[in-house]
C-alpha cells in the first residue's frame, strides 16, 4: 500500500487481511501509528505492520535512508551540472536552484556537496538576510579571483519569506556589475526516471527483510484457532537503515523523535555535513569535532 491512501482504505484493508505493509513517506508512518494506537478500540488493527520508507525527501523517522532518495539525489546533481555547463560561454554567472523535499533539506544539502555549491539554504539550519549578504560577498570575491560560475541551492520550504524570487533579486542587486544571476526551479523532473542500482538493490533487500519479519510475527502472534492477535508494540515497526544496519523500530517508540507538523525527524544524521559544505566552498569556517 502506498502513502496516497485514504482513511477508509486503511480501515478496509486492516479489517480484511492478516498483515499490513505501508510503503511511502511520513504519511505512511503516521497511518501505521494511528492504527497501532487504536488497537485496543478496534481488534481488526491487531495485526503485524511494517513500514517501508519510500520517498525522495528522506524524511521518514527510523531510517537514515529511504527508497528513492538516491535516485532523486543523482538526478538533482546531474541537473545542477547541466545548468552550470549551460553558462560555459558566459562570464561570471550565479545560478540559484530550488529543489524539492518539503521541510527536509536532504536533497539540497547532499546535492550541494556533490555538485560543489557555494551555499545551501535549508529549513533545519535557520538563516538570515545577513547570511545571504555574506554569501553574496563571498561570490563577488570568487568572481574577481577567476571563478566564472557559482551555484546556490535552496530547499523549497527553507523559508516562508526568503523565497527564490527574493534571493534572486538580492544576489542580482549585490552582484550588480560583478556577476549575473539566474533562478531555476527544478520541479518534478528531479524525481528521476529509472531507479539507480543502489535503490534497486535496497528495494530487494528491504522486501526480503520485511517478509522475514512478517513471517516471524505471524508465527508468534497466531492463536490456536488461526486468528491473529498482535498487541505488542514490537509488532508494528518501521524497517530502516540505521548506521549501516537494517533495524525494525516500533512506531510508538519513534513518536517522540518525530516532528509531525513539518513531517521530519527531530534528529537527522546528514546535518553534521553542513560545516563540511562551507569548508569545501572555502567559507570562513572552523572544523567541528563531534
From TrEMBL:
Keywords: Allosteric enzyme, Kinase, Magnesium, Metal-binding, Transferase. Pfam families: PFK (PF00365). It comes from the Eukaryota. Residues 16-214 form the Phosphofructokinase domain. It catalyses: beta-D-fructose 6-phosphate + ATP = beta-D-fructose 1,6-bisphosphate + ADP + H(+). PROSITE patterns: PHOSPHOFRUCTOKINASE. PANTHER family: ATP-DEPENDENT 6-PHOSPHOFRUCTOKINASE, PHOSPHOFRUCTOKINASE. This is Phosphofructokinase domain-containing protein. It comes from Molorchus minor. The lineage of its organism: Eukaryota, Metazoa, Ecdysozoa, Arthropoda, Hexapoda.
Amino acid at each position: 500500500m502506498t502513502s496516497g491512501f485514504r482513511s477508509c482504505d486503511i480501515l478496509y484493508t486492516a479489517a480484511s487481511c492478516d498483515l499490513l505493509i505501508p510503503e511511502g513517506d511520513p504519511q505512511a508512518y503516521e497511518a501505521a501509528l494511528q492504527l497501532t494506537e487504536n488497537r485496543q478500540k478496534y481488534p481488526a488493527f491487531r495485526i503485524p505492520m511494517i513500514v517501508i520508507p519510500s520517498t525522495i525527501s528522506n524524511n521518514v523517522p527510523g531510517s537514515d535512508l529511504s527508497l528513492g532518495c538516491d535516485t532523486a539525489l543523482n538526478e538533482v546533481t546531474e541537473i545542477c551540472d547541466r545548468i552550470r555547463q549551460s553558462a560555459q560561454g558566459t562570464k561570471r554567472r550565479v545560478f540559484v536552484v530550488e529543489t524539492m523535499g518539503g521541510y527536509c533539506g536532504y536533497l539540497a544539502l547532499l546535492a550541494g556537496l556533490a555538485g560543489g555549491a557555494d551555499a545551501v539554504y535549508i529549513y533545519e539550519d535557520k538563516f538570515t538576510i545577513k547570511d545571504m549578504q555574506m554569501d553574496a560577498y563571498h561570490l563577488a570575491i570568487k568572481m574577481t579571483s577567476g571563478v566564472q560560475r557559482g551555484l546556490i541551492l535552496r530547499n523549497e520550504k527553507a523559508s516562508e519569506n526568503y523565497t527564490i524570487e527574493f534571493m534572486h533579486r538580492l544576489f542580482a542587486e549585490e552582484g550588480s556589475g560583478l556577476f549575473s544571476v539566474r533562478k531555476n526551479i527544478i520541479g518534478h523532473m528531479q524525481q528521476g526516471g529509472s531507479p539507480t542500482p543502489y535503490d534497486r538493490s535496497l528495494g530487494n533487500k528491504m522486501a526480503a527483510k520485511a517478509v522475514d519479519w512478517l513471517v516471524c510475527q505471524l508465527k508468534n502472534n497466531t492463536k490456536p484457532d488461526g486468528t491473529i492477535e498482535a498487541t505488542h508494540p514490537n509488532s508494528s515497526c518501521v524497517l530502516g537503515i540505521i548506521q549501516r544496519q537494517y533495524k525494525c523500530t516500533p512506531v510508538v517508540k519513534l513518536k517522540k523523535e518525530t516532528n509531525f507538523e513539518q513531517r521530519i525527524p527531530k534528529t537527522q544524521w546528514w546535518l553534521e555535513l553542513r560545516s563540511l559544505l562551507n569548508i569545501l566552498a572555502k567559507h570562513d569556517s572552523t572544523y567541528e569535532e563531534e
